[in-house]
């Protein structure tokens, strides 16, 4: 089966998922259309014809897909459309996130030719998997992408496709927000960059302070990544305590897992 172009659908608050999907895109032939859900969620149904490969790459939040992303993914409407499902996680575990992504795509008319969980720097605890994805990871990303296109080439119709399973369980792990929320420090210059990038509108800037609505905040870290004065951080005694334990438990290197 041939595809003319590729839809690259991703969410990336701190840049690692973006790095991985761009590496996938660099191996694929033809035109690529990028949909960065951080900047623009998909709010209306988006039909994708069978001659367009779709790559969805989403970071893992607490073992699941962030609900913010699911709200966009449900609008992708395939019609026997080939897809590649990728989750990116911070070296703890990806639990049910890959199964969740593959299932959403399959329920929406896509057939998933390959699925993978790649490892990247943990966006809440960047001391974990700090330099990842590294050159080995990116070589694997390219290899994975080639295998997906070879598999697609070997099919003459979607009916020939043999489904495969990925790691994960039904019912999915309960989706819980993480308690760590970024905030601005005393050195905040009230520039408002954080408020502009926040995908859920959780940040407001007054003349004297930058406020975060912790009920809305999804802890993605986009504000930390964008802050020009490095004032935005996860902070506080609980964060520091948890950080130490987390680094101790989850620093042992994990390798990407690929499914075809
Ligand atoms: C709210 C939140 C929850 C997370 N939960 C997990 C998790 O369950 N397992 C894991 O290994 N990493 C977890 N991470 C780390 C991210 O999956 C990882 O850092 C990913 O590379 C972030 O992608 P990005 O750089 O594109 O934003 C979490 C990060 C955030 C912000």
From TrEMBL:
SUPFAM superfamilies: 4Fe-4S ferredoxins, Flavoproteins. InterPro entries: 4Fe4S_Fe-S-bd, 4Fe4S_Fe_S_CS, EFR1-like, Flavoprotein-like_sf, PSI_iron-sulfur_center. Residues 180-207, 208-237 form the 4Fe-4S ferredoxin-type domain. Gene3D superfamilies: 3.30.70.20, 3.40.50.360. Keywords: 4Fe-4S, Iron, Iron-sulfur, Metal-binding. It comes from the Bacteria. This is EFR1 family ferrodoxin. It comes from Oxalobacter aliiformigenes.
């Amino acid at each position: 089966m041939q595809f003319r172009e590729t839809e690259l659908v991703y969410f990336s608050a701190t840049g690692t998922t973006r790095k991985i999907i761009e590496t996938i895109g660099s191996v694929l032939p033809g035109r690529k259309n990028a949909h960065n859900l951080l900047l623009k969620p998909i709010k209306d149904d988006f039909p994708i014809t069978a001659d367009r490969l779709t790559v969805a790459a989403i970071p893992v939040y607490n073992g699941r897909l962030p609900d913010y992303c699911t709200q966009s993914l449900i609008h992708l409407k395939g019609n026997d459309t080939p897809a590649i499902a990728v989750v990116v996680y911070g070296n703890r575990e990806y639990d049910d996130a890959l199964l969740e992504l593959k299932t959403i795509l399959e329920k929406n008319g896509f057939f998933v030719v390959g699925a993978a969980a790649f490892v990247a720097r943990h966006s809440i605890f960047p001391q974990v998997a700090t330099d990842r994805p590294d050159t080995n990871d990116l070589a694997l990303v390219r290899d994975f992408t080639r295998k997906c296109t070879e598999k697609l080439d070997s099919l003459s119709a979607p009916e020939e496709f043999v489904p495969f399973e990925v790691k994960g369980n039904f019912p999915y792990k309960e989706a819980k927000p993480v308690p760590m929320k970024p905030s601005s420090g005393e050195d905040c210059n009230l520039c408002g960059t954080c408020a502009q990038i926040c995908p859920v509108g959780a940040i407001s800037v007054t003349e004297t302070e930058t406020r975060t609505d912790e009920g809305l905040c999804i802890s993605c870290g986009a504000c930390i990544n964008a802050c020009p004065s490095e004032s935005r951080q996860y902070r506080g005694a609980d964060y520091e305590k948890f950080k130490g334990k987390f680094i101790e438990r989850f620093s042992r290197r994990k390798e990407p897992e690929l499914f075809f």
